[in-house]
Amino acid sequence: MSKKVLILSASPRKGGNSDTLCDQFMKGAQEAGNEVEKLFLREKTIHYCLGCGACFNSKQPCPQQDDAAEVIEKMIAADVIVMATPVYFYTLNAQMKTLIDRTCARYTEISGKDFYFIATMAETELEKIDRTFDSLRGFTDCLENPHEKGVIAATGVWQKGEVNGLPYMKQAYEMGKAV
């Protein structure tokens, strides 16, 4: 059965290492017959959550006029969500965190989804990437019935293109194919 896959690429660099792994995941998922869309968060205008309370105190939609509502709508509609981020100071980057914070108004509607996490970092000590995945899981732990299906922890990659030719590429492709 075909699934609707949404890939959220938080890389600020098109063709960066985490973005390249997104492309491999997408290739595998498409070859398996799934409908796949990749969004570059860097191309979206997503403002910080203002903590105004409109969404949870008065059940109003978020008053901010930016691209967050469009992205969140796609998250709600997806069967599978891939969250990919480069690691900055041992955690996810601001682009991904800002989106997560902005889901506040509708996060209860992001339920029953399959999640895949992709993170890339220059550091070679694998345990240093744990905080990144802990942060992503902090988001999914707030959702109803999330299913973590796979994780790619690509270490030792910093400069654009360093992930090419490494086993992470095949891992991303195979993970996408298994969706």
From TrEMBL:
Residue ranges of every copy of the NADPH-dependent FMN reductase-like domain listed in the record: 4-122
PANTHER family the UniProt entry points to: NAD(P)H-DEPENDENT FMN-CONTAINING OXIDOREDUCTASE YWQN-RELATED
Sorted UniProt keywords: Flavoprotein, FMN
Gene3D superfamilies reported for this sequence: 3.40.50.360
Signal peptide: none
Organism of derivation: Odoribacter splanchnicus
Pfam family, one: FMN_red
Full protein name: Flavodoxin family protein
MF GO annotations: oxidoreductase activity
Domain of life assignment: Bacteria
InterPro entries noted in UniProt: Flavoprotein-like_sf, FMN_Rdtase-like_dom, ISF_SsuE-like
